[in-house]
Design brief:
Elements (H helix, E strand, L loop, with lengths): L2 E6 L4 H12 L3 E6 L7 H8 L13 H4 L10 H10 L8 E4 L2 E4 L3 H7 L30 H4 L2
Length: 149
């Protein structure tokens, strides 16, 4: 089984289901907070290598969802600057294992790459609450929700 570095938004229900699917398959996780990690443009660029700029973005982020930010119209430099200023814009999860870095959750691709349990329920990438719901709260550091990983 693989050791997976998993960057998440703490408290995100979708990320919780993704982590559960990986753990059910026997993978160990090193969970990191995507929102507080000290990102640099060069580090983020490593994750996004080979992907179109529009695929770098969290489509559930309020500014993207509401049309305030249009990822398809941004240069790589502009996109990175926005993400450094507001990490919620970064598509998640960010996964690193077996010498590879991946962005987002495509269950078939994750299964082919790392392997998931045959009985794993389908876990999507988008918000399980739906696009129109209020975003999940960010847990207070040290709270039960913050440590439940």
């Amino acid at each position: 089984m693989a050791h997976v570095v998993f960057f998440e938004k703490p408290g995100c229900g979708g990320n919780a289901r993704q982590k559960a699917a990986l753990r059910a398959a026997g993978h160990s996780l090193e969970v990191r907070d995507l929102l507080t990690w000290p990102w640099t443009a060069a580090q983020l660029q490593e994750w996004f290598s080979g992907l179109p700029v529009a695929d770098w973005f969290n489509r559930s982020a309020p500014k993207v969802r509401d049309g305030e930010i249009l990822p398809e119209r941004l240069s790589a430099e502009a996109a990175l600057a926005l993400m450094l200023a507001e990490p919620l814009l970064i598509r998640r999860p960010l996964l690193e294992a077996a010498g590879e870095k991946r962005v987002g959750w495509d269950q078939e691709a994750v299964d082919a790459w790392l392997g998931l349990a045959a009985s794993a329920a389908t876990v999507g990438e988008g918000c399980p609450k739906g696009e129109k719901m209020a975003p999940c709260p960010v847990p207070v550091p040290g709270s039960a929700a913050d440590t439940a990983q």
